[in-house]
Amino acid sequence: MDAFGSLLDGFGTALTPMSLLWAAIGVLLGTAIGVLPGIGPAMAVALLLPVTYGLDPTGAFIMFAGIYYGAMFGGSTTSILLNTPGESAAVVAAMEGHPMATSGRGAQALAAAAIGHFTGGMIGTLLLVALAPTIADLAVDFGAPDFFAIMVLAFIAVTSVLGASRIRGLASLLIGLAIGLVGLDQMTGQQRLTFGSLQLADGIDVVVVAVGLFAIGEALWVAAHLRRTTAEAIPVGRPWLGRADLRRTWKPWLRGPLIGFPFGAVPAGGAEIPTFLSYVTEKRLSKHPDEWGRGAIEGVAGPESAASASAAGTLGTMLTLGLPTTAVAAVMLAAFQQYGIQPGPLLFQHEPDLVWGLIASLFIGMVLLLALNLPLAPLWARLLRIPRQYLYAGILFFAAVGAYAVGGEVIDLVILLVIGLVGFGMRRYGLPVLPAVIGVILGPNAEQQLRRALQISDGSLSGLVSTPFAVTVYVIILLIVLWPLLRRLPLPRRRTG
């Protein structure tokens, strides 16, 4: 009851007029940006991060939460209407949602997606309320070896799951770790990778890195492949669901969070895996197998519910352990650090008003998302008709303004362009962006925890496995690394005769 009592206090913060205003602005901006093709929640949060510098931390993170969920909803809108996912978690929604739209049932597909986001978000946030304080209490007793093991797990998991190969995931991670090394050594004060530049002595700001890799890299990639064609939006109509649709969707809405929340809480690549698993599950359980591939509404309802619940799981891990499991969480972690706040086990003790106000705002954001976006679906469809050359020119402008606002130095714009070119090269050669961002965020902290663990053990490597929790995590890491090899081993044949 203590957690739910704290949640009631959080509603006292989240229901103030200014908090409601920031939540509504976040939902609207997130949806508007998420609707645009190729711009997911991570880029939306990264682009709007500098805008919030004048806000108090609570208002800023309430707005970020609205942007996060709004962008996820917007991504499913463009996925359903134009078969162009606004972000990776909405890819599965296109498999059944777009056939529904082309057959004149786009209204029902949008409604199933919107209510799925609402249901999954509500259930996922309830699980967050119930589990987060317990996880934080347990994590208070973690030492340097435990935190380093968790970060190594995040590095290994994110490089193993994402991208076309593990080698490319590892290469992306190494790029991020190298960028994270730029600046002064925290313990010795020695300059690293600064090339004698005093401007680089403080390191490269994480916001500049995030905006460069996501926004600039994506804009350059799109510009290199731009075709002078514009897609016509499909008429949406008024979203609604009949009784037959409700009978087919209510179970997928409830099953989605059971798949989405656990996957969101672990470093497994975000909502891509749970949405696909939800799709496969609903297809196997469906009583209408002949409709799959031609517009089965369960294939929209379940995955969208799972995607929204995975977002709650992602926030839970970030708040309790300071561990970003998705690109959005990595950018939000950078935002916390900009305010001098370090997410982790002590956050619930040191910043209870902010944490519980943020969690309470998730419930409010869900209601606003459903109330605002169902009537506005036709408007979002019209946004899709903006020519891409104008769209991405605007993105480059806002990215440059945002990066300059971070430190007010021209060098930040140069760094932004260089990192943007790095992001372009990563897309060119198939390197996933998320491992690089997580390397920049967690790399310095992992180095610090590694040094602490070695200092405690007088330089002995046994200090890294000095706790049962650390040993357990390294066993999990070993299984992740060896699993592809174990799967290739031939099974023993049974003797017949």
Q: Count up the domains.
A: 1
Overall average residue pLDDT: 77
Low-confidence stretches: none
- 3D shape: globular
Oligomer: single chain
Describe the main β-sheet briefly. 2 strands, antiparallel
SS field, number of helical segments: 18
What is the number of strand segments? Answer: 2
Beta content = under 5%
Tell me the helix content. Answer: over 70%
Q: What is the rounded distance between the termini?
A: 64 Å
Question: Could you say which structural class the secondary elements and strand pairing correspond to?
Answer: mainly alpha
The H-and-E topology, N to C, reads as HHHHHHHEEHHHHHHHHHHH
Radius of gyration: 23 Å
Order of strands across the main sheet = 1-2
